[in-house]
User: What shape does this take?
Amino acid sequence: MHRVLTLFMLLLGLSAMAQRPTEIVFWHTSGPPAQDLFEGFIKEFNAQQKDYKITYRFVGDYREGGIKLLAALRSGGAPHLFHGEISFLGRVVQEGLGVPLDAHLAGIPNDFFPGFLETGKVKGQTYGLPIGLSVPVFFYNADQFAAKGLKAPSSWEDVANAAQKLTSRAAKGYIVSSDIYSFNVLVMSRGGSLVGKDGKPNFTDARVVESLEYLQEMVKKGSAQSRNIAEAQFSVADFLRTKAFMGVAPITAWPLIEDRAPIPFKLGVTAIPRTNGGKVPLAGGALIPLKGVSPEQVKGVVAFWKYLMEPANIAKWVKTTYYLPMRRAAQPLLEDWYKADPRRRVAFAQVEEADIWLQDPEFVLWYGFLEEALERALKGGTSAKAALEEAQRKALQVERK
Assistant: This one.
């Protein structure tokens, strides 16, 4: 009898283990206004099926989350799944920490916008599942433009001319941000690239140099205010307090500016000016399973991503965060939202002209040299060509090590 009871208890235990969902520890970087909705998606996914349970933790923005992940990888305690910026993905793969995913992606929808799934690939193989992709937009003070008889700029020449006309003793026409993202917007919109076809830094390319010379000229003329990455909060404050009237920022800044900050003017939003062949950078984040996950956990990650990619969930995500719709199937659910504000249609139409901004694994090693060069040129008066040549030399030295 005792042996029968023991066997019965063992079978009960095995049954309970079989029914226990596979746990996936997840560190995410979706802060406000996305955080509540994103964590709500996780809870809904956990509740609607019994195979997987995602245990989540918010770890700050992309930079903060990346630092915490690197520390955890060194000391132990890293998650199974990380929500990282797509430019971080190449480094993860280069360090041998990525997990190939293509074998698990059979049957996914074929209506993703061009290039979107490519953001999760490194050398043609999928290691990340994109969930929040954005393009930059051009913000301007519509009241000041109207007062000066100016139209929304459609070229970078328009921007320079408007900046000159809007500048006064009390305010600058344009805000120049000397961070790699903002500078890359200008470079890509002119058909250039910060990384060459050989995968090496491309800072001395003519279009890169011309882009920095363009910004430097506006600063020299006094029609633009230069701010570095540490002064980003002042850039926003300058714009909101009408100390500057134009600037470039990710489209995801739009709800933060308009919905959460009372502003004393009508906000103008338009597409990034482009030359023929120019692109707008596609940036954002992806779900990145990390080395050590089990095949079952990978299946759970893909199942969660597919849930996020359902058209209704994409539409909710777009309306809250202003990230781009991942799939064309979500567009009909957004039509009324676009119609409610024509600025949205103009800004989101850039989805057709978007291209991946950076996937170079060495990016995390050399982007600081570029930002130093931007500051030297825009604040220190060093010639654009000389500053970029120095940054190129330093970046190539790092790549050779």
